[in-house]
């Protein structure tokens, strides 16, 4: 048979025929941070794009009302576009109006996610659509998402254990129970870390700090260093400390920390700390969360590792662009995580598999989530997730689970539909307001 006789496969119609948005509430344990405590349930948004050929791609992003409203407006514009027209998504999102009151002078979730701008809000929504389009494109062409991003450079992506100070249960026993104990002191933190090793094989450890006075958190890191000798450790108080406090903690822990994450708030303060602590890198998911923040932070030497997050940065292609900028400036790159489900973990794993200079294990909240919307949860083995070579993301939506979590969202009176860690804290401490920074 000559080449001319080779049958040409029928063209695939990649036109988007339908977009489905399903807001859900997912169980979340009582994890403490400097703002307060996680609510019993947290909102997420599941996005499905269906092509004219009936191929469905899935994506996931924040589900709070301001994201959901924007997603609804964007979804309307998407029908008739193609799942391989990813660059056009950004122009479409720019057409969607963001109410200034939603972002003016504001920081997201009390500052945990850095600045909140109209642009960043749009990008966080676009990210879920981009992932859904990539999943559909992969399924339509038989290619895994990593191949659509240029191909994997590793077969497994390392994640770190995300340790939290936590209570055994939510105030008044609200939410879904889990089988984790309280962890409010060094011994509790070490026990939590050892379970993460037993159950998942994690080999690096991050403690969410900014909860207790720095001396108590230094003691927890020291206890971890003793229990897990030589393992990379990180501490992240979400910008709760002053420059002098950051310098003191850095001095006391420099021999055991892989990096110190957002010890203090703002690029100028981070730069001051970075200049004074020789040899201990500073990481951030707070002062560099947009491309606009890069020039100042990099020229001042404020951060040595950027914790990317495809939700903030506008998807998987933009995450690779961020990695290229970091590579150019000799800044390390790793990955931040908020409460998320398996669709996002799959997306994180695909993009992480394609970034050459991923020198640090990525963060993931996933072990804290006992609920999911996919048929088979992703597994951590030896602290890593295997990179899927199945078409698309390699996950399958479980419609019954999705419907159940959506029903919970429908039944909620509105209190859980927007994440508010300070409000959740008031259930235990009625006068609580999120502390001003620096807290210590
Ligand atoms: O700085 C970080 O790594 C985070 O902000 C991750 C999460 O938001 C975490 O702090 C949380 O959910 O409490
Ligand atoms: Mg952080």
Automatic annotation (TrEMBL):
Record InterPro entries: DgoD-like, Enolase-like_C_sf, Enolase-like_N, Enolase_C-like, GlucD-like, Mandelate_racemase_C, Mandelate_racemase_N_dom
Pathway: Carbohydrate acid metabolism; D-glucarate degradation; 2,5-dioxopentanoate from D-glucarate: step 1/2
E.C. numbers: 4.2.1.40
Alphabetized UniProt keyword annotations: Lyase, Magnesium, Metal-binding
Matching SMART domains: MR_MLE (SM00922)
Protein name per UniProt: glucarate dehydratase
Broadest EC class assigned to this enzyme: lyase
CDD domains recorded: D-glucarate_dehydratase (cd03323)
Residues reported to bind substrate: 38, 117, 162, 206, 236-238, 285, 336-338, 365, 419
GO molecular function: glucarate dehydratase activity; metal ion binding
Lineage: Bacteria, Bacillati, Actinomycetota, Actinomycetes, Kitasatosporales
Originating species: Streptomyces daliensis
Gene3D superfamilies, A to Z: Enolase-like C-terminal domain, Enolase-like, N-terminal domain
Catalytic function, reaction form: D-glucarate = 5-dehydro-4-deoxy-D-glucarate + H2O
């Amino acid at each position: 048979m000559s080449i001319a006789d080779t049958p040409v496969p029928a063209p695939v119609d990649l036109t988007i025929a339908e977009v489905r948005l399903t807001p859900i509430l997912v169980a979340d344990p009582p994890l403490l941070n400097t703002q307060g405590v996680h609510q019993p349930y947290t909102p997420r948004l599941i996005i499905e794009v269906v092509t004219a050929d009936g191929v469905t791609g899935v994506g996931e992003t924040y589900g709070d009302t301001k994201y959901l409203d924007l997603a609804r407006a964007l979804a309307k514009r998407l029908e008739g576009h193609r799942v391989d027209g990813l660059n056009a998504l950004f122009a479409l999102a720019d057409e969607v109006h963001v109410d200034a009151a939603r972002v003016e002078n504001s920081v997201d979730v009390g500052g945990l996610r850095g600045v909140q701008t109209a642009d960043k809000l749009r990008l966080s929504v676009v990210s879920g659509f981009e992932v859904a389009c990539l999943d559909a494109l992969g399924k339509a062409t038989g290619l895994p998402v990593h191949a659509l991003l240029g191909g994997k450079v590793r077969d497994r992506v390392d994640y770190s254990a995300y340790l939290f100070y936590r209570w055994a249960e939510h105030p008044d026993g609200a939410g879904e129970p889990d089988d984790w104990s309280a962890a409010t002191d060094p011994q509790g933190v070490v026990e939590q870390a050892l379970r993460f090793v037993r159950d998942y094989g994690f080999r690096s450890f991050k403690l969410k700090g900014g909860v207790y006075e720095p001396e108590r958190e230094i003691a927890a890191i020291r206890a971890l260093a003793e229990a897990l000798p030589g393992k990379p450790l990180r501490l992240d108080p979400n910008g709760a400390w002053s420059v002098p406090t950051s310098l003191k903690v850095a001095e006391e822990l420099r021999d055991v920390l892989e990096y110190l994450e957002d010890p203090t708030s703002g690029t100028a303060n981070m730069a001051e700390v970075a200049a004074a602590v020789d040899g201990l890198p500073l990481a951030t998911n707070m002062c560099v969360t947009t491309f606009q923040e890069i020039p100042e932070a990099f020229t001042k030497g404020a951060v040595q590792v950027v914790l990317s997050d495809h939700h903030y940065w506008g998807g998987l292609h933009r995450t690779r662009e961020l990695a290229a900028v970091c590579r150019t400036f000799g800044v390390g790159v790793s990955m931040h995580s908020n409460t998320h489900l398996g669709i996002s973990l799959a997306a994180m794993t695909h993009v992480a598999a394609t970034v050459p200079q991923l020198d640090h294990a990525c963060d993931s909240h996933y072990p804290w989530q006992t609920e999911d919307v996919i048929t088979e949860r992703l597994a951590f083995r030896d602290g890593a997730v295997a990179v899927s070579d199945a078409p698309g993301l390699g996950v399958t939506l479980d419609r019954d689970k999705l419907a159940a979590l959506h029903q919970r969202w429908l039944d909620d009176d509105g209190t859980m539909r927007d994440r508010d860690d300070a409000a959740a804290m008031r259930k235990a401490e009625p006068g609580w307001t999120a502390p001003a920074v620096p807290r210590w």
